[in-house]
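Field reference: sequence -> structure
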Amino acid sequence: MKLLATLAWRNLWRNRRRTLITVLAVIFATWLSIAMRGLQLGTYDQNISWALNLFSGYIQLQHPGFEDNPSLHKSFRFTDEMRAQLDEDARVRGYAPRIYADGLVSHMDNSLGTAIFGIDPEVEADVTRFRKKIDNGRMIAARSGEGIVVGRTLLKNLRASVGDTVVILAQGYDGAMGNMKYRIAGAVKTGMAEFDRAAVFMGIDDLSELVSMPGKISVVAVSLHDLHEVDAVAADLNAAVDTSKVRALTWEKVMPEMKQSIQLDNYSGMLMLAILIIVVAFGILNTVLMSVTERFREFGILLSIGMPQKQLVMLVFIETMYIALVGILIGNVLALGVNWYLSEYPITFSGEYAAMMEEYGWLPQMHSVIRLSSFFNTSLAVIMLSLVAAFYPLYRVYKLEPLKGIRYT
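Structure field:
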């Protein structure tokens, strides 16, 4: 085997230019695939965290039927046991109880439907960066008596200004209609069209009084230190609570549209990388087939003097593996350097493009991440396709007869 390995290495450099071009193609495919995959996954993680930290949280505690059909009657009591479970979990960065309701907001002759969110500003700072999105005025600072914050588009559609008084009408928990006057303390620009167009934020005690629902809440938004611990934390929470009354939902279930858009982009990216690797595999096929065809006379002589057919096939196989492994090794090293650099110094957009991304709630940056799975999967894909590409040349060698090989021109 040692002799075959030596012969295979020497055979590769009998045509240096062809071998170098093929190895460079493997290096390029491996490097680009891993680098792009790291950039893709890193950007996903950053943007998911960016979006989750805006308002929704990584996990939400809800009544089992709330997600499919939100209503005040699908609320629950946030017990001391639940608080203790969250307080004792080191993976949890913070949590915020909230009340969600629907209503009608009116100013002068203008009335619009609205989604009302009752929040506790003191704990929201540990869960979201919502307060940083105030576009005009100020954020409410207490659970009650601080007025309301409205979406920037809603403020414009009401033809109101910060400091004006509006009337909010909402159906209470008991079915009775409640209405109260509130002063607009500020306007928020989240970059999420549905929030900016229809959202009203007020102190959780104010909304509890408006809808006559003391002691109950709609959801608890939970924020974590690490995005990749979401499933584990949600499973632990579901094991600790009565899931017939409340359950923990991950962000993927709370925000399915975001998950689907990321999956679509992910699949399209993987398809492009697969096409790149397949193209390189054809290059390997061409190199190995040309190398084999040129040496048919040599192979015929070797067979005629007694070299086993299997050893000849093994020789060509080792040559193919050399091309693939050298390219993969160098490509992995280069990709590691690129991924590390882009993880430390992300690509940051500026100008109109950055403003457009922020307008839609996305972080105007591209981050990379070093994932062993990306290196392993890409390397394995290149090796497997190299083997597939080498199958036909190996078959030709296996079927070669000594006399036909010697006479081949």
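Note: The first helix runs from residue 2 to 12.
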